[in-house]
Amino acid sequence: MTIVSSFAVLMLVVTILSLLNNRFIRKPTMIVLTGFSVLLFGALRLMHYAGFPILETRAVHILKTINPSATILDGFLCFMLFAGALHINIEELLDKKVIIALLSTLGVILSALVVGSLIYITALIFSLSIPLVYCFIFGALIAPTDAVAVLSLLRDTSIPRDLEVKFVGESLFNDGVSIVLFSTLVTFIANAPSFEILLMLPIKFTWSVVSGCLIGFICGYAAHYIIPLAKDTTLEIKSTVTLVLCTYALSHSVGASGPISVVIAGLIIGNSGLRSRFNEATRVNIMNFWKIVDETLNSFLFVFIGLHIVLLTATKKVFLFATISIPIVLIGRYVSVKTLLKIPFKGISLFPEKTSLLLTWGGLRGGISIALVLSLPESAARDVFLLATYLVVISSIFVNGLTLPLVLKKFGFAR
User: Fold this and answer.
1) CATH number of residue 215's parent domain
2) Which one-letter DSSP state was computed for residue 131?
3) In a domain? residue 41
4) Which one, of 61, 13, 2, lies nearest residue 303 by Cα?
5) Fewer C-beta neighbours within 10 Å, C or N terminus of the chain?
6) DSSP letter, residue 143
7) Can you state the percent helix, strand and coil of the chain, rounding each to 5?
């Protein structure tokens, strides 16, 4: 089966499930699509046991045809982050710039350290031979709240705007930071570890983040002046697509963070560009176009996550270890959020305890984490962390996602 056929089958599943949700269920799209996909896997597995393995075999073949790391990280991600950034009010974002900057940078690093340390201790208890650096790599790939998952849930959840800005602002930027941290650690283990390489890690990390911001700023502002010169809506929409692709490609070519650069470009186009440089008809058409792109790629991603369970195998010991990683990730997230909210910057110390709990519980994980763990080289540690990552993602979508409205109401945040 060709990759086009594989995408066609998955998009057919996406469309059918989306229609069912729209017509009968009417629950958050992210949860419904992932849930139905898991149930579909269950049906395929039952048919396998009943003597009809052909459908499950075909499903495995379809999923293996698609490279999730390349598809998500080098394909979908730049478009989804740009689409999400278009809808963000930059004035509201700047009002929370300190806490968002801390959570999306130091928060990712601190969470990765806590999770990596606890995972390493747990691995020793289970007699699993996993190097410490691999545990920190797992901490890095599972630390960020996934912008795609968070945006998808918040579209269907009543939440105060002030808290929504914190959620969305952090999730848009910490994807890029976590990818940089993950890539830096993977580079470390790929080379013979030495003091010189260790010394270069913070330099590489800083360069990726800072240069990503700079490239996004330059490309975004250049596009916000050039695109309106077209005076044609179709050409202007195509130009925004070109902006995303060129910004992302340029960032990769110089070792900058592509995700961060497209977020910056999206914020500039969504605020300075659409508000002052484009006419009303063009603005509406551009926003509608990127809404369709965002929802289509989102739907595909969550179906892919749900179906990916068909590729997982594990012993009972590894499954129990992976299950324990769920509370460990929550602990790491809470420690990082709680610590940073206590830093005595202006306004940060005013956040109540329930804000830490909400930012922890609402910090959903998604396809970025799965794509990152699948990009690791083949090893026993990779297989263990693949299952752990999948369980954390599924748990955050179903448990955290379904209960977040109840938690918001309990803490008095529901609108």
Assistant:
1) 1.20.1530.20
2) -
3) no
4) 13
5) C
6) S
7) 85, 0, 15
Closest CA relative to residue 379, chosen from 143, 131, 156: 131
Q: Report yes or no: 334 and 269 within 8 Å, Cβ to Cβ.
A: no
Tokens describing residue 332 = 């790491």
Three-state DSSP at 343 gives coil
Give the whole-angstrom CA distance, residue 397 versus residue 401: 5
Contact 40, 13 (CB under 8 A): yes
As for how many domains the chain has, the answer is 1
Helices 280-307 and 77-86, interaxial angle, to 10°? 140
Q: Is residue 57 included in any domain, yes or no?
A: no
Alpha helices in 270-362 (DSSP H): 280-307, 316-341, 353-361
Cα–Cα distance measured from residue 172 to residue 145, given in angstroms and rounded to the nearest whole number: 9
Q: What angle do CA 242, 246, 249 make, to 5 degrees?
A: 140
Element housing 115 (H / E): helix 106-125
- Kindly state whether residue 48 falls inside one of the protein's structural domains: no
Contact between 157 and 408 (Cβ < 8 Å): yes
DSSP-based three-state secondary structure for 341? helix
Question: What is the block-wise mean pLDDT of the chain (415 residues), using blocks of 10 residues?
Answer: 78 88 82 85 84 82 78 87 88 85 92 97 95 95 81 68 81 89 85 68 88 96 88 90 96 93 94 74 89 87 80 87 97 93 61 80 88 87 93 92 83 68
The torsion angles phi and psi of 129, rounded to 5 degrees, stand at -85, 90
pTM over 0.85: yes
Q: Which residues contact 258 (CB under 8 A, 6 or more apart)?
A: 77, 78, 176, 212, 247, 248, 249, 251, 252
Rounded-to-integer distance, Cα 210 and Cα 204, Å: 10
- What amino acid is encoded at 230 in this protein? A
The single-letter DSSP state of residue 217 is H
Cα–Cα distance measured from residue 356 to residue 372, given in angstroms and rounded to the nearest whole number: 26
Q: Which residues lie below 8 Å from residue 237, measured CB to CB, with a gap of 6+?
A: 285, 286, 289
At 276 the three-state DSSP class reads: helix
pLDDT of residue 349: 46
- Residue-range definition of the domain harbouring residue 159: 69-410
Q: Taking a C-beta distance cutoff of 8 angstroms, is the pair 54, 320 a contact?
A: no
- 240 inside domain: yes
